[in-house]
Predict the structure.
Amino acid sequence: MLQEESDLSLIIAQIVQKLKGSNLYAQLERQAWASLQRPEIKLESLKEDIKEFFKISGWEKKLQNAVYSELSVFPLPSHPAAPPEHLKEPLVYMRKAQGSWEKRILKSLNSMCTELSIPLARKRPVGEQKELLNKWNEMGTDEPDLSLFRPVYAPKDFLEVLINLRNPNYENGDSLSFRTHLGLIQVPLKVKDIPELKEFFVELGLTTGQLGIDDSTQVPPELFENEHVRIGQKVLAEQDSAAAQQYVRQGSPTALRAELWALILNISSQPEDILYYEQLKTNVIQHDLLVDSLIYKDVKLTASNDDYYFVFEDYLYQVLLCFSRDTSVLGHFAYSSASPPKSYIRGKLGLEEYAVFYPPNGVIPFHGFSMYVAPLCFLYHEPSKLYQIFREMYVRFFFRLHSISSHPSGIVSLCLLFETLLQTYLPQLFYHLREIGAQPLRISFKWMVRAFSGYLATDQLLLLWDRILGYNSLEILAVSTGNESTSSQITWVYPSPGTSDSEFTLPQFSYL
Amino acid sequence: MSRVSVPCHVKGTVALQVGDVRTSQGRPGVLVIDVTFPSVAPFELQEITFKNYYTAFLTIRVRQHTSTHTPAKWVTCLRDYCLMPDPHSEEGAQEYVSLFKQQMLCDMARVLELRLILRQPSPLWLSFTVEELQIYQQGPKSPSMTFPKWLSHPVPCEQPAPLLEGLPEPSRVSSEVQQMWALTEMIRASHTSTRIGRFDVDGCYDLNLLSYT
């Protein structure tokens, strides 16, 4: 059909445009030039011969991985008449709600700035720069006075905003109808029901092996574990992103996890990436930002107090401080409903040439933000690689957990999915909790916002994050939350196609 | 392909409802929007674009100009086109939509008037409509040129002169040169869109408070 063809060429053009600025493009160009020396490249059939060379030498695979990565992250090109804000968030009332929420955060940050008389950003004097450079690997030993700082917001504040979210065109009357929302979320977003979830998460069915269950000590490894590890090694040898993503849906062996995640996120530590990280480090040393103190405070309050993660405190500073200076993160605002805060250089208010984003990456950390990084420290020990992995995880997944949007992986949809599942399959529990004034979402919201980091044992958490990567969706968090709420194994009795009566069990997570 | 916007006059929506509007409890589930083209002669419709606002199904009827003296009749050209897969939920509720003449059930050659019939069966929404309605007709085609006779009717090939020894065949050379020219043109036309990465302005990052606009 004409429309599909033009859509496809638009997608191709968009991806080509994106990849043109990347390292891979420069590398491919260099390789193509170098390959001209090779005897099999003939001038008459230059294009075909170089393509063949790329296929044999593995460069085509790298390009394939890069294209797959772009397709996973960026939304499809939208209708030509749609303005850019429509791509960020199609529903007008959600855009407005996100705008007001952001305004509240900015006001809070500004008032902290004026109350404490601390500038938003300041250039460090040379002596201080030297001191920080010496202390770079042990910033955790520093004990600055952070008592006056408070986090800009906590997940419970955000929950209140979501509870008050209303569609002005929706029947929000008091009279009960067949569509009254008994939970806290009152917007009618489309969420998957159990048949759709069963189809979406087909690899989590009872008849498919899972790491975390089928590799426990009682189960002989020949049944599943050995074969699964062998396949994992093969996937890594092939260096295929799409295959790796499919593979981790059944869980990833601990030894292979770091490489598999790097392959799925299309991260390879090139010298340019290490150089980029060093550049960010220089930026941290040169300028001191107010958000740095917020990051310090957050790490001290959350990760440092956690039994599993306190050892990684220094890594967390090294990652999060650099993250705040990274302007490449601004790219994700094209498909996020959020917008980066703006400011002007002192004395140049209103002049567009002196407009800057604050913080440079546009992301203001909230209470618990550092917990997104902490589990990754178990996998990656080299700061620049750890940094790249975290940044990619943030711009693909984590940003959706703290912005108001109608996206199926956005926090609003996850909350609604959780409440709908609980109402449908545990109605008595739901009703009882509601009667005693403890709406289930109030308990489980913080688990979802933190992607369970800090609430699950690390090995369980990493298995959960395997599925997030494997399905390229955060919906597993809502389903797991449904699992957690009863603190025991849930079995959905549901006839699966082909068998008469089989059970569909979610992976069992042990509660911390 | 090029398209040209056709100025149209969108009449107010008319709700179709059984019974008295004032006294009945429910909201209308069917709306009709008439679109006329007062200043334009009957034209060939190419594309219709609009922004949806909570309409679930769309039917379009068209009245075309007929050359004979028979009065123009209304014909359905699009039947129950689904805009919202689940009328009770937000999916597709505020999307931008394009409809092309290829999707229409009848020929759209001499359009006089359009009638859009909007349906929203769910009682949950307070109102529904379509916004930013634009009608397009075919843009002007590139002017047709008359080719010289020898270009459009090439004479049958004469036997080419015998090649000198050792030289490659001319047709192969010309196709290779064409390929290389195409590659160089592509390289010349390409440009990157990478960001530089600086967050300060000339080394200075001394800021005012954050702005709210």
